[in-house]
Amino acid sequence: MMKVLGISFGTKNGTNDSVCMEALIGAKEAGADVEFIRMSSLDIKHCTGCCSCVKTLLAGKGNMCVIKDDFDWLLDKMLDADGIIISDPIFEEGASGLFHTIMDRFGPRMDRGNNIIGSRVAEETDGKAIDPRILKDKVISYMGVGGSDWGTRVQCEHAMLALTPMWKIIDNTWYPWAKELIMDDKRLAEVHKVGVNLANAAKDVEHAAYQGEEGVCPHCHNKLFYLDHESTKAICGLCGMVGDIVIEEGRTKFVFPVEQLEHAHDTIPGKFIHGYDIQRMEGAFAKVRQSEEFKARKKRYSDSIASSFLCERV
Question: CATH homologous superfamily for 1-213?
Answer without folding.
Answer: Flavodoxin domain (3.40.50.360)
